[in-house]
Amino acid sequence: MQCPTLESTIEVTATGNNGATSFEYRIAAPALQATTFSTNDTYALAAGTYIFESRTTTDGCIYTEDFTVGSIDFIGVNGAMASQPTCKDATDGTL
Hints:
mainly beta; two-stranded antiparallel sheet; 5 strands
């Protein structure tokens, strides 16, 4: 069983009301996660609060908004033997 990375995929979308149709995005905070403006709009982030900025490429107007990524619940698995293998190194036992 493989555990997932404890990250969520976040996609940022901007819509303009001044005729803007092209945008760039960045994470402004926290400082360790900060990025530069780019056309990349998808981020894989751990739980925490982030400040995102979007900027129009035509006139440089910037919109800022914070977003909190919630924690991912841990999943615990307990196994119980249902049947023993028939002999040493056999793979016919079940959990």
